[in-house]
Amino acid sequence: xxxxxxxxxxxxxxxxxxxxxxxxxxxxxxxxxxRGLEVLACFRRGEAAxxxxxxxxxxxxxxSTVSRLTYTLTKLGYLHHVPESGSYRLGTALIxxxxxxxxxxxxxxxxxxxxxxxxxxxxxxxxxxxxxRLSMRYIECCRGEAAIALNMDTGSRLSLARxxxxxAYLAVCSEAERRAIMEDIHSVDDxxxxxxxxxxxRALEDYATLGCARSFGEWQPTVSAIAVAFQPGGGLPxxxxxxxxxxxxxxxxxxxxxxxxxxxxxxxxxEGVMGS
Length: 276
What we know:
Distance between the termini: 46 Å
Shape: globular
Radius of gyration: 19 Å
């Protein structure tokens, strides 16, 4: 029986904590729309259904507001009401949205063979991710045949500030975007900011000198990972590829000496792959 390290639920919880508390003053920002999307985003991996009270607590909204939002989203098919419990599940309309979004990311197909080869070589998990506010979201995932593996898959989310994948993204995004992200991280968790800033600064230095970002025990205490970001082109934002596994099966020296050059080469092969 394959033993699985239960990292996904923790990563989702940490990532949710890192989300923005609210938008800065912006006259173009539609607050009602943002609240509706926040309701959909508050569902976590593996959860069957949530009551209005649970949604209200997670989103920081009044229950009366949440009731109107869930009613509207249910009418549109984005939520499904469960009469027996009075709770809500994610609706089937989201499947079409997700399928259409993923279908447009041909970079997943182009990256898949190289990711599989690297996962097999490293006997680890290799993921392709995109930024989602203050998180990174897996859009593709390949695993080696390790007896202990990270419980990550397409759709899994992890902290942008603490993960190698997120730090690699920060290394290649524009200076203006990086500055805005750092300000948001600071505003969300002022107490943790000095430690997070130190880790990010160190990762940016690593990226400049080593060609990758590292997160050894910072995203999860028992997980080691490295990541490289690239610009896929075609109007798409930067993406990151990581490689990680529990420290008990993946030696850090092997990760840096043997896996790192292969990960860098894989990212380089995807640079601009979607065209100008």
